[in-house]
Amino acid sequence: MVLITITEVIYLLITTLVIGYIFSGFTTKFRGIDYFRKFNLSDFKLSILVAAPGIILHELSHKFVAMFFGLTAQFQIFTFGLILGAILKFFNSPLIILAPGYVGIGGNTTEVTMMLIAFAGPFINLILWISAHYILKYKNLGRKQAIFVLLTKEVNKWLFIFNMLPIPPLDGSKVWFGLFKLIF
Questions:
Q1: How far, rounded to the nearest angstrom, does the alpha carbon of residue 36 sit from its chain's CA centroid?
Q2: Peptide bond into 100 cis (omega under 30)
Q3: Which residue in 138, 132, 123 sits closest to 151, CA to CA?
Q4: Where are the alpha helices (DSSP H) in the chain?
Q5: Which percentage of the chain shows pLDDT scores above 90?
Q6: What is the pLDDT of residue 84?
Q7: Contact between 54 and 170 (Cβ < 8 Å)
Q8: What CA–CA distance (Å, rounded) separates 156 from 36?
Q9: pLDDT at 93 (0 to 100)
């Protein structure tokens, strides 16, 4: 069984590059650099290192949890979501809407299984957010390291909060509605 297909690898690379572009203004804001400046390669690289892991690991966790339950799962790029995010970034929108992709799941599932698969992505962001918080609190970091960890913390905090909103098709809708059905 192949864990990740070539197509998924290509989709993940495209997603990573677009995410790097979209978040490049975000990283400059925290580093005290003018948000509306032109493209900068080093800022782009930092944005990829900060933002992409939370998003990529989020999606892969959905995939691997689904596979754990014996389901088929494939990461799909959401072209419209990536283009919308890039356009909003290009026009310096104060609000960026980002929906880079999703994991298509096949097979028979239960309510609990879908709830666990849905929560797997935000759970990764929660772990990264809390880990970064404690690293900042208890580790003596240099300025560059502290900025990197602070950015990681902020990106994953917002990814967790956004994804846990009980609004379809976000993960939170599957988690909260699934919990509601289990309890009542």
A1: 24
A2: no
A3: 132
A4: 6-30, 41-68, 79-90, 111-138, 143-163, 171-183
A5: 71
A6: 92
A7: no
A8: 23
A9: 85
Mean of pLDDT values over 67-86: 94
Share of the chain above pLDDT 70, in %: 92
Let me know if 52 is exposed, middle or buried by CB neighbors in 10 A (0-12, 13-18, 19+).
Answer: buried
If we measure between CA atoms, which residue out of 142, 148, 144, 146 comes closest to residue 54? 148
Q: Where are the domains of the chain?
A: 6-183
Q: What are the structure tokens assigned to 151, written together?
A: 């950015």
CB 28 within 8 A of CB 43: yes
The residues near 172 (Cβ < 8 Å, ≥ 6 apart) are 118, 122, 163, 164, 165, 166
Sequential DSSP letters for 115-147: HHHHHHHHHHHHHHHHHHHHHHHHS---HHHHH
pLDDT tens, residue by residue, 89-118: 888 888 877 788 999 999 999 999 999 999
DSSP 143-154: HHHHHHHHHHHH
The answer to whether the Cα torsion of 96, 7, 102, 123 is positive or negative is negative
pLDDT in tens, 133-156: 999 999 999 999 999 999 999 999
